[in-house]
Every structure is written in structure tokens, then in C-alpha cells.
Amino acid sequence: MDVDEQGKPGAKEVEIDEGLYSRQLYVLGHEAQRRVGSSKVLISGLNGLGVEIAKNVILAGLKHVVLHDDQPTQISDLGSQFYLAERDIGKPRAEACINKLKELNEYVDVTLKAGNIVDESFLSGFDVVVMIEGTMEMKVQVNDICHAKNICFISCQTAGLFASAFCDFGNEFVVSDTNGEQAISRLVTSITQDEEGLVTVHDETRHGLEDGDYVTFSEVKGMVELNDCEPMKIKVKGPYAFTVENTSKFSPYEIGGYVHQVKMPKKMSFKSLADSLKNPGEFLMTDFAKIGRSELLHAGFQALDTFRKKHGLRYPTPGNEEHLNEVVELAKQLSETVAENEDLIKAFASGSSAVLSPMCAFLGGVVGQEVLKAATGKFTPLHQWLYFDAIECLPEPRPTEDMCKPLNSRDDDQIAVFGQEFVKQLKMLKMFLVGAGAIGCEMLKNWALMGIATEGDGMIHVTDMDTIEKSNLNRQFLFRPSDVGSSKSTAAAKAVKVMNPSLKVTSYEDKVAPETEDTFNDDFMGSLDLVCTALDNVEARLYVDGRCLSYGIPMLESGTLGTKGNTQVVVPHLTENYGASRDPPEKSIPICTLKNFPNQIEHTLQWARDWFEGTFAQDPASVNQYLSQPDFVKKLDATPNTKLSTLERLNASLVKDRPVKFEECIVWARHQFEEKYSNTIKQLLHNFPPGMKTSTGQPFWAGTKRQPKPLVFDMEDPEHMEFIISASNLRAFNYRLKGERDVAMFRAVLSNIVVPEFVPKSNVKIAQNDKELSEQQEDMMDVDTQAEKVIEQLPEPSSLAGYRLQEAEFEKDDDKNFHMDFITSASNLRARNYEIQEVDKHKAKFIAGKIIPAIATTTALVTGLVCLELYKLVGGKKDVESYKNGFVNLALPFFAFSEPIKVAKTKAGDWEWSVWDKIEIDGRKKPWTLEDFMKHIEKEYKVEVNMLSYGVSILHSFFSPAAKRKQRMGMTMTDLVEHVTKKKLPESQKTLQFEICCVDKDDEDVELPAVHYRIK
After folding, report:
1. Please, is 595 exposed, middle or buried when counting C-beta atoms within 10 Å of its C-beta (0-12, 13-18, 19+)?
2. What is residue 589's DSSP assignment?
3. List 393, 592, 665, 867, catalytic entry
4. For 163-170, what is the mean pLDDT?
5. Concatenated DSSP letters for 708-730?
6. Kind plus residue range of the DSSP H or E element containing 337
7. How, if at all, do strands 555-561 and 530-533 pair?
8. Please, what is the Cα angle at 909 between 906 and 915, to 5 degrees?
9. Residue 463: beta bridge partners?
10. E strand or H helix that includes residue 635
11. What are phi and psi of 427, to 5 degrees?
């Protein structure tokens, strides 16, 4: 019987549906996912928080989830519990929502438990127990049983805008990987012989290690004792150096080698709930601007529990001073600091009966991840208390008892915290959600529960151009298997209306981009109260940011990367916009490294990906362009560096290597193998033979240059055959030939292929670096003569009328199209040339496909934080200190919040402006000419306009010919734009935005904001 590290039998026997869990597997890994799939969890309490946790862990793929909640459904539950409806009122909550939860994941067994759970024999069957509701006394009783039985226990609760979580994972919980980051590997440049050997790594990249980390070594020459040694503890001495244990008796270090970080198991000990209530130890800090807040809330939550016991389990009445004062007095008995913070405890007590959707989303994400940590030992658990609040969301002045009276509606919990008038504002909002993927689904769910756009002219607009794929179902929880292939935005809008039938939502299937400005036009953008992005790329975010900037609309932005998440709130005239701060661009791999000197699997995968794009996508595209565009060859003159190679590849595709039957595709693939993995390597070693020294006397094949070895084709090698099969089938796809998978057929053809013996060429130059490569390209002889010879060999397009190749558009998630089979095998064979560690298809897909790892817990959490900022925007918060940008890493766990950066101001004479400001000109009554426009700017702002532009088009510039400037001065602004852009303005366009460059009377540059010229 297999037993995993957590002692659970059978974990390794669990089959994983990689199609469903693909993005989550890049977060957890296969071994942790198997443990998830063998775990049994009890969730007691199915209010809004309980259903969030249940949703997250069921999506994650637990083996068995048991739901416990006998409480009858109330109308107020509908404001946070998304799987309850009005027809369920009076029914036990767990029973009412179980069928909806079952739909989330066919692999998870979801069952009910009714009655008492304080039963040792019952609890003993679980790996994790989660308690959301119930008295502290009951939680202590359950925890005592769990602690004694080594069952992981989690207690959590939301109380209005406040939240609490506690974890007890036993006396000896083993964490196999504390942070989930990929183990570090670095190239070694020196190691000393000392009692503490000093290791220095190549200065290309910092080592990234920390004191106490463990490492081992490989490929070290000289000090061979380090190769595959037992893990050694390190001490950091600098960004490129650290010490290891005694190396004084080892052989002297010569050259080369790699150091590899080793993830070591970590044991953690937890106190029981009873002990931890009295002696909580160190709290997890969730907001460094709120030092001491956790201690206050530790007392506050216990005081609330005591109040409820005294009052028949009733919560304090919102705004009732007598009740609030009683909670304050109870809290004072537990903490001396309460006396100085009575207002905070009153605010806590006043809304404590409320379960708010954003708080449930936030804490449900946190606790859902803690359940997975308990099940797997992957990532560092919460140790042991977390308190969180968003008191900044409360309106000023605070709502009174009268304002918070319930209306016997699904909005009662929000009314208890914010008051009736505030909730009415939510109902009237006009929102635009860009993206209906994972974040989009969670956001729509939150908005439906918050009652956004349910009255008057309130409306949610949601757009997404993508359709639903199987891999989406693991975290985009509004979708079901029957939705695969459907539009995301349409399916999401339909699903979310079930959660709140009053919701008004319009779905679109359009990209938000310049080409859709007819759809998302001036009227559309001008009608919005708020824009929320749920996008997966920076380019799209920047475009939406620009639109929000132009129309002065607040924007809520968020993103996730595995267990990491971030949120940003953009407030017009108060904060900087999204595009004001950007991450540096990704570092590209040097071309020479890719072509000749790879030293990491990322290099060989990029090489294989480039080969795929060039051969199976670009070459067929070039053929089709040659056959369909009469001026194709002439256009190549504009790219002299690639002209000859393009023509030669065209000749190969249409003349030399054009297949007419599948067997010829196999022959082509076999010759490609020989060329790429044998002949090219032999030529490289001919130019730079083993043992060669550089001009400084150092070995050429050292450091980042790994000495390669040519491969000999072997039909018995599975990787060799995988390459031949995938390459042949892709070639056949290009030429519209029928593919083949029968290995026997491949073997028969391969046995008869004669491969010419390779003879190295002495006149071939190979660049050692990108600088040499650039110089070689400059020194190339006139390519036109060679190009003409190739052109003579090409068939006339008319002789191939109607003939077209089929381009292979890279799709990483289709396991039947051979794309990832080719890229994985091509990369691994090149890695084998250079003795680089090979990877499986799953890892290759992650790197080559640039997949963003994702998990439902982080997604839920960030949308909760975004919706808390939405409350603040609706409340009209005017000070930047009220808003919070957030960064979280659930793996650690780590939380950091900061005020948004204030918008920068620019001075123009006596005027101070920011990017949010604009110069408004109304041209509706009488259209302005360019001359009118220029005179107005010069008169109003005492500047001279040197340049005027509309988008990328220059309408006026001081360096233009005088005749052209004079001609344009009499044109109206709309005629001028249409004349220069050569495009008719859309009927729906009401505003033209111009950029101006100006100078003052001293000829000094003056910055002015954009000009908005109203035409309709």
C-alpha cells in the first residue's frame, strides 16, 4: 500500500484529469494534486463563507467533502450564499445547496451530515475539519478531538467588514515545500577550499538563496566530492556568493558546475484552540498600517461570542448603542487596549450579524488554500491566527440604527453595515466588466450578491471574445461541461442571473480594442460609473486604462499568478492610472545562446518553439502569400537581412522538399533529425573543437557554453520516434496529406532511408555572441545575386492556381494536434545534445506555452478585495488613504496593502494639471477650423502650438511645408482628421482627442493635457 508524506494511504493511486486541472497542476504539482484527490474534508456551516470555501475546495478536486448545516435558510442568506434561492427559505442550508455544489466537479463526492458533529468516531474519518459557524465553546470541543487525533482543524468567521481565521494542524505537521517557488539552479564560477567553502556563482544572475537554505552540486570539475553530495546548509555572503560546509579536504576546484537548491521538509507545531485563545502568540499581520489591530480583534471576536451566549445566540442590533457598549465592556475585560479603541469595537459589533459577499470571497480564498495545505503539506500554513478588517469601507457619517433596519430582503446584511441609502446606490450602478474568465466569473458572482445593477437604469455590461474550454472548468466556476465551446460572457451572464434574478446584465463577445470603438463608443463609455478589468495581458489592460483616463472613469484592476494576487484601484483625479507604473520587460534570450550555446531547458524550448513557428506556420504562410500576392517577392526588398533565407525556404517548400505522399514527410523528418541533432553539432565542434582556448587562455567550452555531443538516430529511443512521428504529421498537415500514427509504418519507412555522411565545412563562420552575429550580417555579400538565382527556380504562381498550404496555428491544449509532442521532443533532443535536464510534456507546455498558473482560491480572494474597493468608490471616499492596493501570496501566507500612489501634477504657468485633466472645446454649435483651434489654445494658455496630433496622425507641425500648413488652416477639425487619416469618422463618435506640443514666449517646452473637442 502506498503511503504519502502526510501518512494517507492510497494517495499515489489517484488518477489526475490533466485536461481539467492543467492550470492548477502548475500551482500544486502532480504529487500534491494526488494528495488533494485522496483527502476527506468536513465543512460545518454553509452560510456565504462556508459555500465559498466549499466551492473552492471542490473545484480543487478533493476526494470527499461532507457538508453540515441544519440552520434553516433565511432571506438575508441570499445576499452572500450564491447557491440558495427564495424557494429554499426554511430548508436546511446544506441540504438546499448540495446539488449545486456537486455540479462543480464530477470527481468529488459531496455528501450531507445532519445533527451533532461533536463525535470522536465521526470526526476521526476526516483529514480536515472546517468550522464556520457555532459558538466558541463548540469549536473548542471539536478542536480538542481533532488535536488529539492529529486531524487538521480550521475555524473561521466573517462579521460585517471584519474577519477571523484560526488553524491547528497538530503537533508535528510536515511542510514539504514552504513557498512553492521553483528550486533555484545557478552556474558556479569558483569554490574555495576552506572550513566554510565560499561558492561564487556566475554574475549573469543573483543566486536568490537565503540563509538556512540547502544546496547540492552537479558537473563540478576538480572538487568532484561536491557532485550529488548530501544537501548542505548555506550562509549568504552576498548576491553572488554564499558559504557551505567544510571543503578544506576536498580536491581543488577547477571549472564549471551547477549549484541546485534542495527543498527540505519543515516540521511545524500548533497549539489547540483552547490554548491559543488564552495565549495566541504572534498574529499573522494582514495590514502593516494597522499595528495592534489583531490583538484588538482577538478580544473583540471573543467578546462577541460571549454577548451571543448571553442573548440566546442573537447578534448585536446594528447601530444599537446599548448592545455596542455591552460588547465594548466585554472586550475590555480581555484587552487593555480596547479602552483607546472603543469606536473600532463598536463598528465591529454593529455589523457583526452581517455576512458580506466580498468578505466571504476574501476569507473563503484564504481558508480554501489552508484546506489544501492541510491535505497536501504543500506551502506554509497559517500559524495560527489571522484577523482582517476593511473598516475604511464604512460610510461617513456612520449609519444610525434607523438607517440599518432590515427590510426582510436579500439586502438586509448589507443594510446592517452600510444603511439603506448606500445599498440603493449599489442597485443603480452602471458597470463594465472586461473579461469573463476566472476573475470575471467571481466578480459577477460578487456583484449579483451585492445587488449591483438590480434597479432603475443600473446595468452590468460584460464582454469576452473567448469560448469555454475544459481547462476553464477548474476555476471559472459559473461554467459547466455542457458550456464547453460556448461564449464565456453569454454563459456567465446567464449563470449569474440565476443567483439574483433581478440582476440586469448585457453580454458582448467583442474584444475591447480600437477596432471595437464603434461598439464601446462615446455614449457607452460616458454612461458608465465604473470599469473593472478581468484580463490576462498587459496590452489589453493598458488600452482599457487609456479609455478610462480619457472618460474620467474609475477602474478596478486585479490579477493572479498561482498563489499570488494583486489588486489596484484607480480613482480619477486622485490616484495615478494603471499605465503610470509598469514592470520592466521580460529579459530576452540572446540569439547566439538559442542557436549554438543553450545551457537551460528554457533555451531549448524556445528554440523548439521558434522552429515550430518558422517551419509549420511562417513557411506555409510565405508560400500562400507568394502564390496569392503578385508583389510578394518585391516586398522582400524591404527586409534585406531575411530576404535570401525567406526565398530559400520558399524554394524548399515548393520545389526541393514538397511532399506528395505521407512517406515523404517521414523522410523529411528523418533528414531534419540528422541536420539539427547531428550535422549542426558536428559543424559547431569543427569550428570550436573540444579543448579549444579563448584569447585569454580560458577553456572555450566552459561557463555558460556547454560542450555538445551529436546524437545518433535510434528507432528504439522513444524520444527519437516521438520527434519523427510528430514532425511528419505536422508536415503532412501543412500539405493537406492524411496523417499516420502506426509506429510499424514509420519503422518500415525509416529502415529504408539513406542519410548522407556529413563532412564539416571549413568556410562556415559561427558567431560566438550576438555582437559577432550582427557584424557577420553587416559583412554579408550582396544577397540580390543569390536571391535572383533562387527566384529563377521558383514555380510561377499561375502554375499552382488554387494551391495553398495549411498553416499550423500553435495550440498548446489540444493533445491530438502534435504541437506539444513536437516541441517537447525537439527540445528534449537538443537538451540531450547539451546534457541539459529534459522535461516532460506537462512542464514543456508550461514553459513553451507561457501558461499562467491559476487556482480558484487566489481568484476568489482578489475579487473580494476588489469589491471592498468598490464599496469605497460608491461611498465617494475623497482621500487616498482610504483606498488600498493589495498584494498577497497565499503560499507563505503573506499580505501587504498600500495606499495608491497619488496622481502626479504638472505645472503649466499658473495652472497645475494631471493626466486626468483635459482641455474641453465645444465645436457642436459652430465647427472650428484649425486656425480657430490654434488661436484659442495660444490665447487661453499663452503658448505657441508646435505640433498637433490625432492618434498616430500628425495634423499640424512647425516643420511642415508652409503651403501645407496654410492649406490646412482653413479646414474644420473633423475634415482635417478625415483628410489626414483617410478614414471617415464613425457616426457614433462624439469627441475627438488631440495631443498638443507647445512652447512659451521664451521657446521653452510647455506640457498641456489632451484636448477633447466635442463634435456632437
Report:
1. middle
2. P
3. 592
4. 98
5. P------TT-HHHHHHHHHHHHH
6. none
7. parallel
8. 25
9. 434, 508
10. helix 632-635
11. -65, -25
Which of 192, 248, 191, 238 has its CA nearest to residue 219? 191
End-to-end CA distance of the chain: 76
Quote the cell numbers at residue 443.
466578480
With a cut of 90, say whether residue 968 has pLDDT above it.
yes
CA–CA–CA angle 55, 59, 65 (5° rounding): 65
At what angle are helices 718-734 and 743-750 packed, to 10 degrees? 90
- pLDDT score of 950 more than 90: yes
Question: Cβ atoms within 10 A of the Cβ of 986, count?
Answer: 11
CA atoms of 521 and 174, how far apart (whole Å): 56
Residue ranges in 763-894 assigned as alpha helix (H)? 770-778, 783-793, 819-833, 841-848, 856-874
Q: What is the pLDDT of residues 704-745, one digit of tens each?
A: 999 999 999 999 999 999 999 999 999 999 999 999 999 999
Distance from C-alpha of 266 to C-alpha of 232, rounded to nearest angstrom: 15
For residues 18 and 26, what is the distance between their CA atoms, to the nearest angstrom?
10
Strand partners, 157: 164
> Whole-angstrom Cα distance, residue 36 to residue 167?
18
592 given a catalytic annotation: yes
Record the pTM: 0.93
Q: Which three cell numbers stand for residue 810?
A: 500553435
Q: What is the Cα–Cα distance from 409 to 420, expressed in whole angstroms?
A: 11
Alpha carbon of residue 53 to chain centroid? 21
Would residue 229 be called left, alpha or beta, if left means φ above 0 and alpha means ψ between -120 and 50 degrees? beta
Pair 966, 930: CB distance under 8 Å: no
Strand partners, 894: 889
Q: Yes or no: say if 906 and 542 are a contact pair by the CB < 8 Å rule.
A: no
Question: Distance between CA 951 and CA 995 in Å, rounded?
Answer: 8
Q: How confident is the model at residue 642 (pLDDT cuts 50, 70, 90)?
A: confident
Residue 532, beta-bridge partner list? 433, 556
DSSP string, 275-297: HHHH---SPBPS-TTSTTHHHHH
